[in-house]
Amino acid sequence: MKKTNEKHNYNLDLMKIFACIAVVGLHTLQKDISLINTLFYYVCGFAVPVFFMSTGYILLNRDQINFKYSLRKIISIIRVVCLWSLLFFCIEMMVGVLKNSIAENNFILLFFKILIGGLVQRGRLWQFWYLGALICVYMILPILMKYRKYLEKIWIICVILAIVMQGLSYIFKFPLQSHCIQTFRLWTWLQYFILGGLIGKNHDMIGYIKNITFKKHTVILFIITGVIPWYQNFIGKLVIHNSYAEYFYDSLLTILWIIVLFTWVMKLSLKQWVIKIIKYIAPVTMGVYIIHPIIIMFALKIVSVETVLTSFAFFGIVLVVAFFIAKIIYKIPKVKKLIEL
């Protein structure tokens, strides 16, 4: 299996870093504290779609991918989930034994509850829903590669499904997506996954964007980024009565915003000192994603986040602590498997 382009793409790594920072923001900025928090929360809403786009950008532009490759990646993901589940199982066991609250015949059940719960967005490892969704995408990937010449049409179908879903949510006054856990919202994840592949195929551009100067592109990004949080805040509170960012991934405006953002980052001309920083941070973005909810879980037991200042401080501290823990894990060969897919 060979890549169509052997040159490493640091712009793509930078996009992943931005998404990593944003996903921490989604979980720490406490959107209901103030309007400022709400607006910044929605600005962070590009994070998860961009994770899928970045993966699609790479994989859908390889020469060939077969079921054997997908199986290997799925096993790698399951290994990471099992290792973390085992770690939390041991913690739960020790706490349970100390409290005398766990019977011996419940040990295996507890482990699988932690393992499966994470993949379906339940329990202490709820963030692993993303890895569950990624498993689903890898299962479909060989089929997408086989019918790669139809990717544009498949993407259009996914976009139509997303727009219909979003439109019906507006009509019925609640997010229809809430009936399906994020792990299985494949119409959304495949749309962004394929979109990333299509952008990669067109050398960092898509459609009319290739004819726009970087300056104009920046202005467009600035305007749409300014509109997005106000629009989502309005729709969330007054139309669908649910203000979580996940219920806007299917919005046409969000899709356009993420296209503009993604292609803008891919256009950036990176200096060598910036590339050095990217090379230092990029390897642990998945580690930060995995670790930051665990830090949040323990931190909220001892601190309260009730003001704008404390929420932004909490965001910064969680991000920095998660990064350094992930970096330490990454530097230990046998332990790095906890964060390496």
Short description:
With 341 residues, this protein is an all-alpha fold.
Walk me through this protein's architecture.
This protein is mostly helical and 341 residues long. The chain has one domain. Helices cover 68% and strands 0% of the residues. It contains 13 helices and no strands. The longest helix is centred in the N-terminal third of the chain and has 33 residues, at 67-99.
Which descriptors apply to this entry?
341 residues; disordered N terminus; 13 helices; mainly alpha
Give the tally of structural domains.
1
Strand content: under 5%
Number of strand elements? 0
Oligomer: single chain
Share of helical residues? 55-70%
Structural class, by secondary structure, is mainly alpha
Sequence-ordered SSE layout with sheet pairings:
Elements: H1 10-28, H2 35-43, H3 47-59, H4 67-99, H5 107-119, H6 129-146, H7 151-172, H8 186-201, H9 214-238, H10 252-267, H11 272-281, H12 285-299, H13 308-331
Helix pairs in contact: 1-3, 1-10, 1-11, 1-12, 1-13, 2-9, 3-8, 4-5, 4-6, 7-8, 9-10, 12-13
